[in-house]
Specification:
The protein has 128 residues and is an alpha+beta fold. 33% of the residues lie in helices and 23% in strands. It has a single domain, classed as Ribosomal Protein S5, domain 2. The protein contains four helices and five strands; from the N terminus they run E-E-E-E-H-H-E-H-H.
Length: 128
């Protein structure tokens, strides 16, 4: 098996994920996972797809991620890893699909409209 290349997106984050057989090392932007994501919750989010298919320590994952915040980046990486695991073995699809990890979360920030304070918030009305 050679390197599997997939892409994951969430909000404005884009993650390019490269998966190959290895010892289970995850590298994000040339840094170790626990060095890039300090929060334990975000580290668990990134590893969630690998844990569900019980592939801990079988694949090395290299990620280039840009845009957005830390949570959006973590969820983009999770989607990319899930897609790569399905490319490697189609038997991984049902458990990942059941957990909702193969669905692209399309929610984005709504743009600010002219004549408004934010996307929907109006300026305060003054009767007098």
């Amino acid at each position: 098996m050679e390197i599997i290349n997939t892409i994951g997106r969430r909000k404005t984050s884009i993650a390019r994920v490269y998966v190959k057989p290895g010892k289970g090392e995850i590298t994000v932007n040339d840094r170790a996972l626990n060095d890039y994501f300090k929060s334990e919750i975000l580290q668990t989010t990134v590893k969630q797809a690998i844990t569900i298919v019980k592939a801990d320590g079988q694949y090395d994952v290299t990620v280039n991620v840009e845009g957005g915040g830390t949570k959006g980046q973590a969820e983009a990486i999770r989607l990319g890893i899930a897609r790569a695991l399905v490319n490697i073995n189609t038997e991984n699809r049902p458990p990942l699909k059941k957990e909702g990890l193969l669905t692209r979360d399309s929610r984005m920030v709504e743009r600010k409209k002219p004549g408004r304070r934010k996307a929907r918030r109006r300026f305060q009305f003054s009767k007098r």
